[in-house]
Amino acid sequence: MDYMTVKEACEKWGFGTRILALYCAEGRIDGAVKKGNLWLIPKDAARPEDRRRKKSSIKEENKMVVSKDIYDLYEQNRHEGPWPFQSLYENKELFVEIVKHFPYPMHICAPDGTMLLANEAYLKFAKISNPEKLYKKHNVLLNPNLERWGVKDFVLRAFQGESVHAYDVKVPYKEIIERLGDYKELVCESLFHNMTALPIRDSNNQLLFVVFIFITSRSYQDREEIIRGKEYIDDHWKEEFDIDKLAGIVHMSRHHYTRLFKQHTGMTPYGYYQNVKLSKLKEMLCDTNLSITQVFNECGVDYNGNLAKRFRDTFGMTPAQYRAAMTQK
Q: Which domain holds residue 33?
């Protein structure tokens, strides 16, 4: 196979050498191999997607995918004359279509807590095939599990008319499906949501509806012991790694749990812990308000320690070089 150097690939594809070396290290270029300190790239390799956040790419990411139903309504109305901006609020049919096709789970409640409407994404999330049994029969405020789930204050504030946000809340997914859903198959999945509650008021500032929106922040799908281990590491990644404590959570010996974890994930619990640390380092290095030393301190990592060396080995560049590659205009 014929190869080209990183420099030759940069000239061919229009990338900087640092960002292309990073893409090689992340496995985003098929067939790229490392010889010593150099990366060699197949000459017929496909150009990788540029995922740096440039103004043009941000605009593309923000483009909405319009459903056929909404587009048909637009086509129908635009031939009947001008379609003024305020008609979005007057056209109930259009409003229903927007709610129906909203890409995140959402439901709308009356001020007394009664659920009035849920969109398709919510019905799919809760595995509800017949929404009729849900509407006007399920009251969010009367749910006896709110306090145990840790969302009672969030819900009460929402029905008092506040705009409320909650981040990375563990979803009682199995219980929701058992209570609301039609499919009773075993659920081996763990979800965390960012939740938003928005009040809708009338012209007299009286509360008409409360809209709840749920966006998945992280999810796990595996054996229960693996899920619990990943959740614990993701929640305690700033702390020192403790395999005995981790194994104790799932009531296994450290050796048994390490073997089980590697069998299901391809890495040891400590390897997963290090990957979480590296991911957090990458994320925080993009914050130019922090010095690189501050980033490492925030992540609980010694800048001169083994993880810093692993960062260079994994991504093919130092943290300073990574920051420069990610923040260059």
A: 3-61
